[in-house]
Specification:
Layout lengths: L29 H6 L5 H7 L11 H11 L5 H4 L10 H6 L30 E5 L2 E4 L27 H12 L6 E4 L9 H12 L6 E5 L2 H4 L6 H8 L5 E5 L9 H12 L3 E8 L7 H14 L2 E7 L13 H11 L10 E5 L6 E3 L5 E3 L5 E4 L4 E5 L6 E3 L1
Parallel strand pairs: 2-3, 3-4, 4-5, 5-6, 6-7, 7-8
Antiparallel strand pairs: 1-2, 8-9, 10-11, 11-12, 12-13
């Protein structure tokens, strides 16, 4: 099994300006949420004395997984869990499972090719497409998601980027006129303080060939207090159209505080999308996933991507078969609005980019036509001279 670097990355956060009240898991200060995040089962017990039945857990197995891949979960996010069990969606995504110590042969340290030669022109950049580039300003996150395809990066100080390296990365982007979108990812770019984050965005905003800025963040889900009125206003003041892509996987994560964060961003002119990952036992059955999609719509975050789980070490218990994804997409189409239906995507290992895995509604038919399956299950021949109707 791979050894994980032990140097933790430090967040770019400062303490509140005034002495805060006694800590509460539902506090609205994002910096305290980040600072009080649980990194062990002992921390969970200290934050929520007697609430979770930790004695029933395989503690040695969990601690072995923590030693291998780390753990971090904000009090706010843990407070959404109902029980300490892997069938609780929040607990399963926030607390390591003993099953993470099992690595399958096909799993990769760099599952999607972030660091493939030729695609990684700078330590803080990955370029898979001619018109887009990923920028990693920090490896810090408020929660270490158990399915994360950057497990080797998150919380690892070896991937920290100082101001000089960030400036060099922006200089490189400035010299690439075919790049039209910069995607800030990580780690989580919203763990940066307002001034550092906006200084970086304003430099990118000044580049005439950058037509879109995108921030991928889990903070509206795991630490939604980060989205202050001040931050939303500063993001909305950028010249370049700016999108925030959040990451909710289950309806329980789409809370009123999440919705407030989305409203603030949208009110400032910042579009909000959501991406999810297809996860076994969490969002791979139609009723639960449909509830997620409707919850996102009601909160104002538009679903746009459902990723097939990547070949991340220790995540075999969370990955489904593609046929499971097909069945889910088939069940969802026609039962939620088309604009609420995400694209089912696979990130091809080795840095080759994303491809759609949507259920194959249309397949080659006879005599040059198309065999089309409608959402109601009927099958039709389209476009051929011998068009006919049949029940599938």
């Amino acid at each position: 099994m791979p050894e994980r670097a032990v140097r933790p990355a430090a967040p770019d956060v400062s303490p509140p300006d005034v002495a805060p009240p006694a800590f509460d898991p539902r506090t609205d200060d994002w910096r305290r949420q980040h600072a009080r995040a649980a990194t062990s089962l002992d921390d969970v017990e200290a934050l929520f004395p007697g609430r979770f039945d930790l004695a029933a857990l395989d503690r040695p197995g969990i601690e072995a997984a923590i030693a291998l891949y780390g753990m971090r979960a904000t009090p706010y996010y843990l407070d959404l869990a109902e029980r300490a069990a892997e069938d609780d969606p929040v607990w399963a995504l926030a607390v390591p499972s003993p099953r993470e110590t099992v690595r399958l042969p096909e799993e990769r340290d760099d599952p999607i090719g972030d660091e493939v030669d030729g695609l990684h022109p700078h330590p803080a950049l990955t370029r898979r497409y001619r018109d887009r580039v990923l920028l990693y300003p920090t490896p810090v996150c408020s929660v270490h998601c158990r399915h994360c395809f950057r497990k080797r990066v998150v919380g690892n100080a070896d991937y920290a980027v100082d101001d000089a390296a960030l400036a060099a990365a922006v200089d490189w982007i400035a010299g690439e006129p075919e790049l039209h979108e910069v995607i800030l990812t990580g780690g989580d770019p919203l763990t940066l303080g307002d001034d550092k984050l906006l200084a970086l965005l304003e430099r990118l905003d000044a580049l005439p060939h950058v037509w879109s800025l995108r921030l991928h963040t889990r903070m509206p889900v795991v630490n939604p207090f980060r989205v202050t009125e001040a931050l939303a206003a500063r993001l909305g003041a950028l010249r370049t159209p700016t999108l925030v892509v959040t990451h909710a996987n289950h309806a329980v994560e789409v809370t009123g505080v999440f919705a407030r964060a989305v409203r603030r961003l949208r009110g400032a002119g910042v579009d909000v999308l959501n991406q999810s990952v297809l996860l076994a036992g969490i969002n791979d059955e139609p009723d639960g996933h449909r509830a997620l999609l409707w919850a996102l719509l009601r909160a104002g975050a538009r679903p746009y991507a459902l990723h097939h789980a990547d070949l991340v070490p220790g995540t075999g218990h969370l990955r489904t078969h593609v046929e499971r994804g097909y069945a889910l997409m088939r069940a969802l189409r026609g039962t939620v609005p088309g604009h609420a239906l995400p694209r089912y995507l696979l990130d091809v290992p080795g840095g080759h980019g994303k491809v759609p895995l949507d259920y194959p509604w249309v397949q080659p038919g006879v005599l040059g036509g198309l065999r089309v399956e409608a959402p109601d299950g009927t099958v039709h021949l389209y476009g051929g001279p011998a068009a006919r109707f049949e029940r599938g």
